[in-house]
Amino acid sequence: MSDNSIPELTLNPTAAAAEEVPALTLEPNAPAAPAVPEPEKPKAEPVEMDERLLSDAEKKAVEEFSKKIDIMDSNMVLQYGAAAQKNVAGFSESALKSVRTKDLGEVGQSLSELVVELKGFGQEEEKKGLFGLRKKAGNKIETMKAQYAKVESNVEKIARELEQHQVTLLKDVAMFDQMYELNLKYYKELTMYILAGKRKLADVRANELPALKARAEASGAQEDAQRYNDMVQMCERFEKKLHDLELTRMVSVQMGPQTRLLQNNDTIMIEKIQSSLVNTIPLWKSQMVLALGMEHTRQATAAQSAVTEMTNELLKKNADMLKMGTVQAAKEAERSVVDIETLQHTNQQLISTLDEVLNIQKEGAAKRREAEAELGRIEGELKQKLLELHN
Which end of the chain, N or C, is less packed with Cβ atoms under 10 Å? Predict the structure, then answer.
């Protein structure tokens, strides 16, 4: 990402919503569903989220924004980064809507209708060859021409429908490219929020907290002790908020390959349609024309005794060609867009994700209960110590 596309850090949520470039704000209005990384099977190097992920200009923007953060502002802590979370949630909803409203079954139906029409020409001809031997040659060739015209018309109609589906899918592929780039912007925005918050939190714990603690110990005043305790509590809350942002960031990380997967599905279907338009349809047209040509030859060169032999030969050849084309078309129609192993893997990862999220939430709740008990004990010790100082 170039320096010109660096997200602008801001504390104004209205301006952030109006700008096309990502803008960090402390006053958002919507949370996003958290997610966790996929469980590792082969061990991979963990990604450390630090300022090495940023350019020099982005590092400077994070440093300047961190100075504006007030951890003691309870409302700010509650709303910190939620605008970015809302963007990710909206992006996820857009991707889901795109998949939900797309009816790829129409493409499959058109391909199936194409197979039926092309296969039907040979089947009808075979039926007429078996039961229509007594018909005059002129009537037979006219029937075949009429049949050819009907099948050709239907095939052309289906071909136009397939071309329309292809155009729609091409637009969707371009849309997924735009969605992928937009998701990269949200990912960078969340990263900057998190790094800015961690910088501020580290600074408070390294400087302000020790100073407040020393002041409370020196003065022995209850309000100083309470002020120190309040800041400790706010640091814990802000740290948990940053963790929520990290979960949302992981959602954005996963949306990248998921978007590419959807795009790849559309690309595969485009290729199937293209193959039907440039290969299958012209091939079957040539086979139908060939059938008509052979019938003309049969009429011109064979006597009544040879009609049956020529008809049988024609039927055999057409049956072989129909079998070849039908098998090819059936293979293409039956070929899966996504392997079942891929769907099983995706399902397992989703289940594992839900389990890990539940465990993280349970552990977080347990740690907060332990922290509350410990803080109460600390406060009691502090009060007792303060009383001892005056005795």
Answer: C
pLDDT of residue 21: 47
- Hey, what are 359's tokens? 């465990």
Structure tokens at 319: 């049956």
Alpha-helix residue ranges (DSSP H) falling in 302-336: 304-334
> Once rounded to an integer, what is the mean pLDDT over residues 188-194?
87
Nearest residue to 259 via CA among 118, 120, 92, 32:
92
Which tokens belong to 164? 């329309």
Q: What are phi and psi of 309, to 5 degrees?
A: -65, -45
Kind and range of the H or E run holding 274: helix 222-275
DSSP state of 72: T
Enter the DSSP assignment of 276: I
Which residue is listed with tokens 């963990």? 46
Q: Is the dihedral of CA 62, 65, 67, 69 positive or negative?
A: negative
Inter-residue contact 86 to 32 (CB < 8 Å): yes
- How many other β-carbons are positioned within 10 Å of the β-carbon of residue 314? 19
Contact between residue 117 and residue 144 where contact means Cβ atoms under 8 Å apart = no
pLDDT tens column, 301-328: 655 555 577 777 878 887 888 888 778 8
**Contact (Cβ atoms closer than 8 angstroms) between residue 129 and residue 310:** no
CA distance 256 to 43: 21
DSSP of 357-391: HHHHHHHHHHHHHHHHHHHHHHHHHHHHHHHHHT-
Single out the residue of 178, 160, 186, 220 nearest to residue 385, CA to CA.
220
Spell out where the chain has E strands: 8-9, 23-24
Show Cβ contacts of residue 220 under 8 Å, excluding neighbours closer than 6 positions. Answer: 386, 389, 390
Region class of 138: left (phi > 0), else alpha (psi between -120 and 50), else beta: alpha
d(CA 345, CA 362): 26
**Model confidence, pTM:** 0.51
Distances (CA, A) of 181 to 177, 255, 257, 262, 381: 6, 11, 12, 15, 55
Judge residue 269's burial from the number of C-beta atoms within 10 Å of its C-beta, 0-12 exposed, 13-18 middle, 19 or more buried: buried
State the residue for tokens 């090819």.
328
